[in-house]
Design goal:
The protein is about 30% helix and about 15% strand. The protein is an alpha+beta fold. It has a five-stranded antiparallel beta sheet with strand order 2-1-9-8-7, with helices on both faces. Strands 3-4 form a two-stranded antiparallel ribbon. It has a two-stranded antiparallel sheet with strand order 5-6. Helix 2 runs antiparallel to helix 3, helix 2 packs across helix 5 and helix 4 packs across helix 5. The longest helix is centred in the N-terminal third of the chain and has 24 residues. About 5% of the residues have low confidence.
């Protein structure tokens, strides 16, 4: 019996010695609760604040068999995608990195909507007035986010983009960081933003037609207000106690001339050329067309929309 108690005491003392050695020689932070996640750091909320949900969607790009011949075009990248069947209808250099001009503003809208100010008051500063395309805001005016989104998406207001970014918690740079964090959270590797408007001159900015498809689908699926705004041709913001009245017109130039078109966004800078993302909802099909660096985006998009419908054996609508 004594030997048993002696053995028990020895084991207890040995255990205490081991704990003492661990306490002395192992850094204290190792003892804190720290678990290894199966996700990479950029997909964890602790590292990337723009991770709101993990719902990756990857387009299926494969050779589409169509009786109709694809139209001729000048664009450096083309993607025609049927969201209803989740299949591509035409792809040309859709994975090529290219500048995107004001197509940037789709991500600007996403980050703004997911990080809306609690007071919904966005103050205009003099430094926000940049670029030729503008909403026309004045320093000192105060807008709601939805009002600014109309100015961002309809006339492609660079000033609206800058107002949104400068009113973000942490300021403009933090907003741009959030834009880049968001594309990582969406699983995209070929997109980078250097400002909230898409204007050239602030550093490297690029995307691909495939990444733009994912970004556009995300905005359309998750934000009814975004879908409503981009499908609006004309919108008036009545005067309030904090800003004058504004009448805004949508630059997406097929919205009133091609039946079924519901937006989404134009873009142009000298480096990006003419860019266009178009959503067509027609005869039960939802089709997104993307053109990057086209010499005639309006005509080329019309031809691609016609091609997409003919490929589905649907007669295209009469259009201008």
């Amino acid at each position: 019996m004594r030997s048993f108690f002696g053995y028990l005491v020895s084991i207890t003392l040995l255990a205490l010695c081991i704990l003492l050695i661990m306490y002395i020689f192992i850094p204290s932070h190792v003892g804190q609760s720290k678990y290894l996640s199966p996700l990479p750091d950029f997909l964890t909320v602790g590292v990337n604040k723009q991770v709101t949900l993990l719902d990756f969607w990857s387009p299926i790009v494969e050779k589409f068999q169509a009786e109709a011949s694809p139209p001729t075009f000048t664009a450096r990248a083309v993607l025609l995608y049927n969201l209803s069947t989740n299949k591509s209808m035409y792809s040309y250099q859709s994975s090529k990195r290219l500048p995107m001009a004001s197509l940037t503003k789709i991500m600007t809208a996403i980050v703004a909507l997911e990080n809306k100010r609690h007071d919904d008051r966005y103050v205009v500063r003099a430094e926000n007035l940049v670029g030729e395309d503008s909403m026309g805001v004045l320093p000192g005016e105060i807008f709601s986010l939805e009002e600014l989104l109309y100015g961002l998406m309809l006339p492609s207001g660079n000033d609206a983009a800058e107002v949104i970014a400068s009113n973000y918690v942490g300021g403009r740079k933090a907003f741009i960081d959030a834009m880049n964090d968001k594309v990582k959270a969406m699983g995209l590797d070929d997109t980078h933003f250097s400002n909230p408007s898409g204007l050239q001159g602030d550093g490297q900015q690029y995307t691909t037609a495939l990444d733009l498809l994912v970004i556009t689908k995300y905005a359309l699926d998750n934000f009814p207000v975004f879908r409503k705004i981009v499908s609006t041709y004309e919108h008036t913001l009545p005067a309030t106690g904090t800003h004058q009245s504004y009448t805004l017109y949508n630059e997406t130039n097929l919205l009133t001339t091609y039946p079924g078109v519901k937006g989404v966004k134009t873009g142009y800078t000298p480096e990006a050329g003419m860019c266009l993302i178009t959503l067509l909802e027609y005869k039960g099909h939802s089709i997104v067309g993307i053109l990057l660096n086209s010499e005639n985006r309006r005509e080329e998009m019309k031809h691609f929309l016609d091609f997409s419908l003919l490929s589905l054996k649907i007669t295209p609508p009469s259009h201008q």
